[in-house]
């Protein structure tokens, strides 16, 4: 260590020792150009996605599909910004992983529908639920 570090010498040694033990993929974001690296960058990416969704749909608020499929849409928005995909790229996707993701999205979608039904008519929703349980 350089003697110029002075009293920071032990802190720098500790920082180097600690960061050296981190998982190798922890700082993967620095290997990809234009990838969100900080919370502010990530919030900016969310904001851009929300903004584009509003412009595409003409709505003033985010659509419910953004709530349900937001994780997929955000990943797609970032990925397509970084790389142009061809049909052959998409054909290489593992079908089982894709089906599992679709299943998870369907569960979220069903939960949102149930929430909507409850808000729209709580008495009928609870009566239906009670009849199914008894």
Automatic annotation (TrEMBL):
Name this polypeptide is given: Transposase
UniProt organism field: Nostoc minutum NIES-26
